[in-house]
Design a protein that fits this description.
This protein is of the alpha+beta class and 80 residues long. The chain has 1 helix and 4 strands. It has one helix spanning 48-79; strands at 6-9, 19-22, 28-31, 36-39. The protein has a 4-stranded antiparallel β-sheet with strand order 1-2-3-4, with helices on one face. The longest helix is centred in the C-terminal third of the chain and has 32 residues, at 48-79.
Length: 80
Amino acid sequence: MKLPKFLLADNSDFPEDLFVVHTEYPRFILNVEEEDVEWLDDLEGDDEETVANEATKVVEEAFKWCDEELAKYDDEEDEE
């Protein structure tokens, strides 16, 4: 099965929170409201700085993607 790179998620136990799940390496769950990341994979690499930069980059991509997705929902509501 082919999965999208990012998924939006919510949970009734955390009604105020919105989550982004990153399905590719390095996999993680981002709590958008709390700006907290739970890594599901160990981050590996020879250069610690490079690994940190790549991790920061993919988390920033997740925030950007989430903003774009939420804007689509807002646009759909405005059209109704």
